[in-house]
What we know:
Layout: H1 6-19, H2 26-36, H3 40-55, H4 59-73, H5 79-82, H6 85-102, H7 108-113, H8 116-125, H9 130-147, H10 159-173, H11 179-202
Helix pairs in contact: 1-2, 2-3, 3-6, 4-6, 8-9, 9-10, 9-11, 10-11
Amino acid sequence: MHFWRRDYFATLKDVAAKARQTSAWSDYADFCDRSEQGLRAEAFAILDRFIASMERAPFAERRTFVSWLSRQADHRKGRHMLVPHPLQIRLVEPTLLEWTLAEPTCAEPHVWLSGYDHLKLALKLDPDNQLARRKLIIVVLRRVVFDGHEIPVGYLGDAERDLAALKEADELLKGLLDENDRSNLCADIAEQRNRIEEFLRKR
Length: 203
């Protein structure tokens, strides 16, 4: 059962076991368990109860859960199963936004809110934050890839602007400590730059 999404369901099982270590998160653990078993309706009924309870919890409790969940979900296969839309909209996003106001010098909520502006601010607040740096490079690359995905037929974005964005990504790359990440992202940046420059030469 679910063999084609085995990794997703392994993630649900793993996170459920970790969540169960905190008694206040037992409903979230049950949500993950029911989802892993394929009991979607039951799972979302439990999730709704958990969200309603957490919405009434003090900010510090919500922040702790959202920080933990964001770390669990980051770069995991099946992230959308760990953070489904109701949880994102009703609890995760509002708590992160509240966190940015409660602790304006803290980079972490901006890392999890993601997006170019939030990640730029996260790096400004914490220049040594490797996760923010890596995420920002990826955000820049994804935008450039989207703008140029119709090459050689045409270019959806501004090619010169995207070359400048890749230059920014190169600068960000210099501060990335993980050698594998740096090597892989460097290759991706070079590939996109070559595609754009070739497109401009042939115009």
